[in-house]
Write a structure and sequence with these properties.
With about 190 residues, the protein is of the alpha/beta class. It has a single domain, classed as Rossmann fold (3-Layer(aba) Sandwich). Helices cover about 35% and strands about 20% of the residues. The protein contains five helices and seven strands. Strands 1-3-4-2-5-6-7 form a seven-stranded mixed beta sheet, with helices on both faces. Helix 3 links the parallel strand 5 and strand 6. The relative contact order is 0.17.
Length: about 190
């Protein structure tokens, strides 16, 4: 997809703050520090549109980005970061689950996992929740450029053993690896 416009629209902390124009939405989910903001910027070929940080747990709201005035990317808070309070982690989880369960405009959930590590318990729980609730989803293994070809192949096989019968796309925000495949999945989802 050719990106003509990509703009940050709003941060939402409650359902009444969500967008209301009915355009399809693509949600990006994953644990803190998995590279969601880097992936968003890479997909959109924009530096700094989604703020990246070396400090996990920075995204505390649902962030809506309008793409080509045709669809939204929605960056959800990361999960699993230990240095925030339990109540704050619980609030983030409720906000994300409410969005995922109730949002009719949600066309696809893109779940990010770190290609360098086995999926965490929280990664598995999110995948099971999406599957149980019959939500269209895609698994993307980020930071593929940080591994050798052999390590990446082995790790993708191991990730595939956890997420059985699911395609896992390897992605690098640095090299652009996997970008076309992710866009193909997004385009197919919004056309359905």
């Amino acid at each position: 997809m050719k990106i003509t416009t990509a703009e940050f629209v709003k941060s939402a902390f409650a359902p009444e703050h969500w967008t209301t124009d009915g355009l399809p939405e693509i949600a990006f989910l994953g644990r803190s520090n998995v590279g969601k903001s880097s992936l968003l910027n890479s997909l959109l070929q924009r530096k700094g549109l989604a703020r990246t940080s070396n400090t996990p747990g920075r995204t505390q709201s649902l962030n809506f980005f309008l793409i080509n005035r045709k669809l939204y990317f929605v960056d959800l808070p990361g999960y699993g970061y230990a240095k925030v309070s339990k109540s704050m982690r619980g609030d983030w989880g409720k906000m994300a689950e409410s969005y995922l369960a109730r949002r009719d405009e949600l066309a696809l959930s893109i779940q990010l996992v770190d290609s360098r590590h086995p999926p965490t318990t929280l990664d598995i729980q999110l995948h099971e929740w999406l599957t149980h609730h019959d939500k269209p989803s895609l698994i993307v293994a980020t930071k593929a450029d940080k591994l050798s070809s052999n390590e990446l192949k082995k790790n993708l096989e191991n990730i595939g053993k956890v997420f059985i019968n699911r395609e896992v796309i390897s992605y690098s925000s640095v090299t652009g690896r996997g970008r076309d495949e992710v866009w193909q999945a997004i385009t197919a989802a919004i056309e359905n």
